[in-house]
Amino acid sequence: MVAAGHAVSAPEEEPLRLRLGPADYLTLGNALCGFLAVWALMSAQSAHAAAGIAGPLPRTAMATVVGLMLVAAALDVLDGRVARRLGGSGMGAELDNLADVISFGFAPAFFFVVWAMRAEGIGVLPVAAGGAVLLAVIVRLARFSCQAPGANYFTGLPCPFGAMAVVTVVLLDPPPMAGVAAVLLISWLMVSRMEYPKPRGRKAYAVLGLLAVGVVLMAAWGMGLPAGQTLIYLMSAVVLGFIVTLPFYVLATRRTAAEQD
């Protein structure tokens, strides 16, 4: 027994591991892919300007940019699984948020602005829409950091899906004003209260498979292979349809479960 007047000392907390772990290197790869996507876009734009070429960016450059963002999204899925299996460092969550701001906030926002600014007479609206994407990603990540772990659903459209949706708008090449409206809607979805299921277990592998298919399709499209454009339109339609309909699927599933109880 402990003598009276002596306080029982609380067990010391284990200090956070501040060395990079395997998962952290995947997270850094995610950030690097976002940086390289911006670099590839700037290089293509500079080459166009130097050659005095007007109009949209070459297909190869756009395919490279989108392919890098898809790889970043795959690394974002993998780093969490590796951290859970091999353990992560105390910096993991912070690194993940910082990488996501680069790859899923700044990179797609900049991609959209470069695409939309080719049109005349729309002023600063593309910049405002791109800024909305970046700010939505920052707010969403901050809110996610404050939420209790272990939930089965994301509140708001996850940043990688939001980035892919913005990229999809660019690939579909709608009228600039329609693109601005679509990107503003995507930004709202990211900070909304709509719920999206977390890709766990086999679902995570399914997401990785879809991202790998996306990279292959972008390579085929960039090389100008037959039916590449049709496949890109089909993939874009699937992505947008998935993003819009999934919250309603979650609501229907919950309602059915409540009725059964």
Automatic annotation (TrEMBL):
PROSITE patterns the record matches: CDP_ALCOHOL_P_TRANSF
Keyword Transferase in record: yes
Pfam family name, one: CDP-OH_P_transf
GO term, biological process aspect, one: phospholipid biosynthetic process
GO cellular component: membrane
Molecular function GO labels: phosphotransferase activity, for other substituted phosphate groups
The organism's place on the tree of life at top rank: Bacteria
Residues spanning the membrane: 23-41, 61-78, 98-117, 123-141, 204-224, 230-252
Keywords associated with the record: Membrane, Transferase, Transmembrane, Transmembrane helix
Family classification: Belongs to the CDP-alcohol phosphatidyltransferase class-I family.
Name assigned to this protein: Phosphatidylserine synthase
